[in-house]
Design a protein that fits this description.
Strand order of the largest sheet: 2-8-7-6-5-3-4
CATH architecture of the largest domain: 3-Layer(aba) Sandwich
Structural class: alpha/beta
Number of helices: 13
Mean pLDDT: 95
CATH class of the largest domain: Alpha Beta
Distance between the termini: 62 Å
Low-confidence stretches: none
Strand content: 5-15%
Number of strands: 13
Largest sheet: 7 strands, mixed
Number of domains: 2
Order of helices and strands: EHHEHEHEHEHEHHEEHHHEEHEEEH
Shape: globular
Length: about 375
C-alpha cells in the first residue's frame, strides 16, 4: 500500500478566506429576488443587448488582445489617456495583480477593518502580509492608516465608497493621505460605485491618479452598467504601473462579447442616469422604512444599504437572513467581515423593494 503524499505549495495561502456565495449557493430563478451583489436591477441597456447579439457572429475568432476600442471608449468618457488604461476580466483580477507586482514575497498591505474583502483575499493569495487597521464609525481612518505604515508597507487599499459599509472619505482626506505616504507606497482606490456616489459628494479617484506617481484607480462595468456576468474591469494610473499590469495579465483576457457590450454600454449614458435616478428615489425611501420598523441603516452613498439588526434572540441578523431566504429574497451576509449583526441589501426594482419592506416588517413584528 502506498502512502498518499500531499504536494506542498511554495508559500502558505491557507489563510485566504472562503468566497461567500449568495444565499449559500441557492440557484437564481425568476422567482428569487437577488439583492446580494449590488447589481443593477434592470439588466443591461438596449445598446449593450444589441451589441451582444451582433458580436456573436465573430466568436470563432480570438478577441482583441488589447481591448483597444473599449479602452478608447473609457478614455473618451472619462477624459483620460488611452495608454494609461488596462482592462481585465473584472477589477478583482487587477487588484490581485497589483499585489502580486508590488507587495508579494512578504511585504505589507494596509487594509481597513471593514474594507472590501477581496483586498484581503488578494493580499493573502499573492503571499503578502495584510495589516488591518481599525475604522472610525465604519469609515476609513486616514490617521490609523498612516500610523500603520512601516518600512515593509507597499500598498494601501481604499474602496471609496466602501463595500459593504457604503461610507466614503472626502477629497481633502485622500489628498492628505497621498501627501503623507512614502513615495514607494502605492495607493489603490477602488471606485466600483463611483457613478452612484459622486453625485452625493464622493470624490472621483481618477482625479488623484492623473497627476501622481503612486495612485491607481480601479473601476468596473458590473454595477451601474449592468454587465456583471461579462466581467469587465479596468484600471487607470501611472504608465509604469499600467505597463506592469499589462505584463501580468493573460492574453485575450476579455472576450469579444464583453468588449463590444462594454463599448455600447459606455455610450448609453441615458441608461446610466436612469439607474442613478432610480437609486436616488428609492434608497432614501428604503432607509426611512427600515428606520420605522426598528432597524439601523448605515449611511451610504452607493446603491446598497447595510442594516444593523437588534442583538436579541428573536430579531437578529442570522434569523433575518433565514427569514428572508424563506421569502425567496437573497441579501448579503456581512458576517465574513466581522459584522455579524448586519445584512447588506441592494436597492432593487420598485416591486422588489416593496416586497422586501413588507417582509422585514413581518420579521420585526
Amino acid at each position: 500500500m502506498t502512502k498518499e503524499t500531499l504536494l506542498k505549495t511554495t508559500y502558505d495561502f491557507s489563510g485566504v478566506p472562503p468566497f461567500v456565495v449568495r444565499g449559500d449557493g441557492k440557484p437564481l430563478t425568476d422567482t428569487v429576488i437577488n439583492l446580494s451583489a449590488n447589481e443593477s436591477p434592470f439588466g443591461p441597456s438596449l445598446l449593450a443587448r444589441e451589441a451582444i447579439a451582433e458580436a456573436q457572429e465573430s466568436i470563432n475568432r480570438y478577441p482583441d488582445r488589447d481591448a483597444i476600442e473599449l479602452r478608447q471608449a473609457i478614455a473618451k468618457l472619462n477624459n483620460i489617456e488611452f495608454e494609461k488604461i488596462v482592462c481585465s476580466a473584472g477589477s478583482d483580477t487587477l487588484i490581485f495583480n497589483l499585489v502580486l507586482a508590488y507587495a508579494s514575497r512578504n511585504f505589507e498591505v494596509i487594509l481597513s477593518r471593514y474594507g472590501f474583502i477581496w483586498f484581503k483575499r488578494a493580499t493573502l493569495a499573492a503571499g503578502a502580509i495584510p495589516v488591518v487597521v481599525d475604522e472610525k464609525n465604519y469609515r476609513f481612518s486616514v490617521d490609523n492608516v498612516l500610523s500603520a505604515i512601516t518600512e515593509k508597507t507597499r500598498i494601501i487599499f481604499l474602496a471609496n465608497p466602501n463595500n459593504p459599509t457604503g461610507s466614503f472619505i472626502s477629497h481633502e482626506e485622500i489628498d492628505y493621505l497621498i501627501k503623507k505616504i512614502p513615495d514607494n507606497v502605492l495607493l489603490v482606490i477602488d471606485d466600483a460605485y463611483q457613478e452612484y456616489a459622486e453625485p452625493e459628494g464622493c470624490p472621483n479617484g481618477i482625479d488623484f491618479a492623473k497627476n501622481t506617481h503612486n495612485v491607481v484607480v480601479t473601476r468596473t462595468l458590473s454595477k451601474i452598467y449592468a454587465l456583471a456576468a461579462l466581467r469587465i474591469g479596468w484600471a487607470y494610473g501611472p504608465q509604469d504601473i499600467i505597463d506592469n499590469l499589462n505584463r501580468l495579465r493573460q492574453p485575450f483576457n476579455i472576450n469579444t462579447i464583453a468588449q463590444k457590450a462594454g463599448v455600447a454600454a459606455l455610450k448609453d449614458q441615458k441608461f446610466v442616469q436612469s439607474n442613478i435616478e432610480h437609486n436616488k428615489e428609492w434608497k432614501p425611501k428604503l432607509i426611512e422604512k427600515f428606520r420605522q420598523i426598528g432597524l439601523n441603516p448605515l449611511p451610504t452613498v452607493a446603491n446598497f444599504i447595510t442594516l444593523e439588526f437588534p442583538q436579541d434572540s428573536t430579531h437578529n441578523a442570522e434569523l433575518a437572513l433565514d427569514f428572508l431566504h424563506s421569502k425567496k429574497i437573497i441579501p448579503r451576509t456581512t458576517s465574513d467581515y466581522g459584522m455579524e449583526n448586519f445584512i447588506r441589501i441592494s436597492v432593487g426594482t420598485e416591486k422588489e423593494n416593496l416586497f422586501l419592506v413588507d417582509s422585514l416588517k413581518e420579521f420585526m413584528t
